[in-house]
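Lab notes, practical 5.
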Amino acid sequence: MANNTTPKRVMAKLLHLSRPAKRVSNVVRTWLAMRSQKRRRNAGSGTPASPVITGLNLTESAGEPLYWFDVLVDFTFEQGSFPDGTIELYWSRGSQGWVENYVGAVSSNLRQLRHVRAFSDFENDDVRYWMRYRCGAGIVGPFGPVYQWYYCAP
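Output from the prediction step:
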């Protein structure tokens, strides 16, 4: 038989004293449930889609120096329920050992990005471009497929 050292009268008094805190616990419980529901709604959408480059176009760069070309990068992106963020563009060149370089970013609402003064009129090179979606530090999407092409100076 177990030896109970706390009398029943003291236990009843302790339970009676904890009842006013019940109102506070209901408020905390409600707040926690709403916070959890909000987190579930935000987390339920999974990973954002990756942007896909659909084409590249060369245009002459404006201003000095002469004989430089900009690259207009066209892409598609299914944003879904993710918040507005940025689309980041990266590139690498075969002549530079395929070292990854950050080009820039545009709003995720746009579908074209300009890479200013990407090539001169005096060079030929293999080039790779790829992109990803980012919204702050919290949501970073996967890189899209690499778009590779050979630039031949006109």
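Observations recorded by the TA: The CA atoms of residues 3 and 11 lie 15 Å apart. The mean pLDDT is 81.
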